[in-house]
Amino acid sequence: MSGRRDPVEEASDGSVDLYDIATWEERTLLDSVSTLLWRVVAGSARLAVVLFAFLLLIGIGGFAALTDPQTGLLTVLSAIPAIGLAAYVYSTDVSSNEPLSLLVATFLLGVLTANFAAVLNTVLQPYFRVFGFLGSALFFFLVVGPIEESVKLLAVRLYAYTDARFDAVLDGAVYGAMAGLGFAVIENALYITRQLPNQGLDLGLGLIGVGGGITAVRALAGPGHVIYSAIAGYYLGLAKFNPGKRGPIVVKGILLAAFVHATYNTTVGIGTAAVSIATGFSGLAPYLIYVLIYDGIFGLFLLRKIQKYRDSYHQAHTPATTESDFDSELTEFE
Q1: Which of 45, 59, 79, 158 is the most buried (most CB within 10 A)?
Q2: Any bridge partners for residue 142, and if so which?
Q3: Residue 187 near residue 226, CB atoms below 8 Å
Q4: pLDDT of 47 above 80
Q5: Distance of alpha carbon 100 from alpha carbon 59, whole angstroms
Q6: 54 C-beta neighbours (distance < 10 Å), count
Q7: Whole-angstrom Cα distance, residue 173 to residue 230?
């Protein structure tokens, strides 16, 4: 558990060297070799995950989607709302400015780890189709939500989480948002690639006419990924500073994010239809309204958590007013 020490160390007054008895530090050649081997093994495991994710990206056509200029342009346009939301979450970090290297690395890892979800979702979806709407709902709640939120959290855990500059609970929300942005970008790229007609489109009216509607739909889907993973990321940050309860805290964050994510996927069709009936609007408008309402509700939930942290941070860093302060002010009236 966090902060616990061996009874020998607790009872010691510091005058006795407890190295290799109750404490440990790198001293001998064997210690150095052991430390080096551990770093190699841990680093190799992370590298293997990243390499495997990169191979999946190539295997499912994601790399080609990102390098094609037409798809790239539509993907960038579709990502603008998600980029804006991620930037806003970044701006709320009251403790420190996160380094660009960690932000970019987390974004790229979000792109890569998304491929795990793409493969698993594709493999498992057929088993749920036979149950109609109930099967779709189960698929969203048991597969899509948990898997996608877990792989986005993995993007944070692989690198930023282990860095010393991840030094506040709120950093988890920032890096979670960046992982969600990376996930949204590659998901949009793959979706746009599959939805665009097979015939070639130039970068003029043909691309705008056919791709504009697809891009608009994906632009509305992107911010949700940022919100969901920022929620899960916040709890990952909370877990880092409460190591004795790390597991349950991480699970709580994933459950919350997965539930919000799966509920959106399950209700977006029904909700859009309901908005269309209630307003008489057609086309993209009902979908836009529903997404704004849904993301607005849970975006406010995320922002309230962030604001509570910010308020607590300012309170903790504001010097307490002492009685002597009042006394010094009163002397002006003497």
Answers
A1: 79
A2: none
A3: no
A4: yes
A5: 29
A6: 16
A7: 4
Give the CA angle between residues 245, 246, 248 to the nearest 5°: 75
Instruction: Tell me, yes or no, whether 64 lies in a domain.
Output: yes
Angle between helices 169-195 and 69-91 (to 10 degrees): 160
CB atoms within 10 A of CB 164: 5
Residue 9: inside a domain: no
Q: Which two tokens stand for residue 153?
A: 């959290």
Q: Name beta bridge partners: 23.
A: 19
What tokens appear for 51 in the block?
């390499």
Quick check: 299 pLDDT over 90? yes
Strand, helix or coil for residue 19? strand
What confidence tier does 8 reach under pLDDT thresholds 50, 70, 90? confident
Answer yes or no: is 155 within a domain.
yes
**What number of H helices and E strands is found in the chain?**
13, 0
Q: For residue 188, what are its two tokens?
A: 């949009």
Quote the number of domains for the chain: 1
Query: Alpha-carbon distance 329 to 238, whole Å?
Result: 41
Banded model confidence at residue 220, pLDDT cuts 50, 70, 90: confident
Tokens of residue 270, six digits = 């029904």
Domain that holds residue 133: 48-314
Contacts of 72 (CB under 8 A, 6+ apart): 66, 189
Q: What is the pLDDT of residue 201?
A: 47
Would 3 be classed as within a structural domain? no
Global pTM reads 0.82
Using the Cα atoms of residue 99, residue 103, residue 109 and residue 113 in order, give the sign of their dihedral: positive
